[in-house]
Amino acid sequence: MKFKEFSEFIQKIEKTSSRLEITRILADLFKKLDPAEFQQAAYLLQGAIKPRYLTINFGMAERMVIRAIAAALNVKQDEFTKRFKKVGDIGTVIEEYKKSQISLIEKKLSVKQVFDRLTEIAKVSGEGSQDKKIQWLATLVNEVDSLSGRYLVRIPLGVLRLGFSDMTILDALSWMMTGDKSLRPKLQKAYHVRPDLGYIGKILKEKGLKEVLKIQPVIFTPIIMMRAERLSSGEEIIKQIGECMVEPKYDGFRLQIHKKRQEVRLYTRSLEDATFMYPDIVSGVRKEVKAKEVILEGEAIGYDIQTGSFLPFQETVQRKRKYGIDEKAKEIPLKLFTFELLYLNGKNYIDVPFTDRRKKLYSLIKSDTKIADATVFLASDELVSDPKKLELMFDDAVTHGLEGIVAKRLDGTYQPGARGWNWIKFKRSYSSKIEDTLDCLVMGYDYGKGKRAGFGIGAFLVGVYDEKEDKYFSIAKIGTGLKDEEWRQLRVNGEKLRVKNKPLAYDVDKLMDCDVWISPKIVVEIKADEITRSPVHTAGRKLKKSKSGNAMEVDVAGYALRFPRLLRFRDDKTPSEATSIKELHKMFKSQR
């Protein structure tokens, strides 16, 4: 496929507000791509050249890209920058200039050719690399048509943002095969094991659904981590899953550990490669985990060398940094408590019952080592069938500064990406009727007034997730409880994700519109006094036709938060890991 035709599909998507219509457009595009092209096109649609767990930095700031464009279009940088600031979109300005010029070197480049050239630009490094990047991008801009230039240049800047999620691409793959979304659950199951849309689509087109369903874990490809359901009493937990294994709920960084001989990589819940941040964990895994190839999960928490006790999350989080890593590692060493085995020496353990996974995990890690003498440990566990015993274990965990406990079904499998009853959280905040915490997505913000005018932000809108609809629904607008530094951090992070219009995945009442909308990325943990009802928030809201039949009116008011305040930014969570409407409904019922 020529990149020009590919760009025409992108233009259709950009002009479409209907999620279903976007799915159909993508399905039409996918039908026209051969398997190899699909892999490249899938990454480009995400504004990248690799799956999202492989971070590729083009190393091109806005100023560098403008230099390349100015050279390609033979215009002055100041003139282009002035026009760009007025229009607000660098791609649109390129399209305008190229339409007014006659190009003698324009070529009919294919998707593959553009993809390969962008890959070369991203990979070049060393002395003189900046000049090479500028020169190569300028040549590429020259060789594409005006519409292609519009979308091409957004990719190195990371601002393609077409407004659909990975799940929409899976829906479109299903639509390509069947004309509906019926294959989405099967494709999503494969995606949770191997979150690489390019690879999944390539296999689907090349070998069919049967081969997609055979997808297995692969070392150095993170598996989307399983999530737990939540209950607020020992009696409820035992009633739900019976006799179970109970583990402490540590309050640290959840990590997925991949080891192949002496190479170790660490991944966060959001699929970020965090290997460089935690050299002490990497060293410990190399020395202490007895396996050639293994995928483990565990929680890393800070350890106080002086007192021999574990540190609260507020101190552990200081280890999440890009600079001064070695010094901080000496000041706050981490201890890794492993609790899951997903893959070992060629064997997939995802579908193996929990008791068998745990038994095999015992053989990989020493269980009698003193805390001060090692880095990697087994999370402690105990078989429990008595609800009162489970309650006592919960109280003991809280007394020792832990979040709470996790109960695991003995015959339960590991369910990548799913929130199921094989794991149940009984966490400190959930034991209170009015102190539940929620993980919410920041959807947008309003400009500040008074003191906050300096921050550029005065209140921000948050929402929760509905997996069935693949949408985010508003639940609170928060304007208090943040420190000055947190307001500034939110403003800086939000500006990087700023988009012109409200993302398609957001369902927000007009009364809750924001001055600035941002694409789904920032997850925050919110504490509130109570979950209430409000007609202006859309989480759990139901509409009905008015008596006149010409409009919709509120039938059931949505959920809202009373006195919401920020606890912390959850960089370790993806937007789809935000609290679900289903969970919210349970929390609302339990507080009453």
UniProtKB/TrEMBL annotation:
Coiled coil: none annotated. GO terms for biological process: cell division; DNA biosynthetic process; DNA recombination; DNA repair; lagging strand elongation. It catalyses: ATP + (deoxyribonucleotide)n-3'-hydroxyl + 5'-phospho-(deoxyribonucleotide)m = (deoxyribonucleotide)n+m + AMP + diphosphate. InterPro entries: ATP-dep_DNA_ligase, DNA_ligae_ATP-dep_bac/arc, DNA_ligase_ATP-dep, DNA_ligase_ATP-dep_C, DNA_ligase_ATP-dep_cent, DNA_ligase_ATP-dep_CS, DNA_ligase_ATP-dep_N, DNA_ligase_N_sf. Belongs to the ATP-dependent DNA ligase family. The keyword Protease does not apply. It comes from the Bacteria. ATP binds at E247, R254, R269, E299, F339, R419, K425. It comes from Candidatus Roizmanbacteria bacterium RIFCSPLOWO2_01_FULL_38_12. Keywords: ATP-binding, Cell cycle, Cell division, DNA damage, DNA recombination, DNA repair, DNA replication, Ligase, Magnesium, Metal-binding, Nucleotide-binding. This is Probable DNA ligase. The active site is at K249 (n6-amp-lysine intermediate). Residues 327-466 form the ATP-dependent DNA ligase family profile domain. DNA ligase that seals nicks in double-stranded DNA during DNA replication, DNA recombination and DNA repair. Its EC number is 6.5.1.1. Signal peptide: none annotated. The keyword Nucleotide-binding applies. Its cofactor is Mg(2+). NCBIfam families: dnl1. One of its GO terms (molecular function) is metal ion binding.
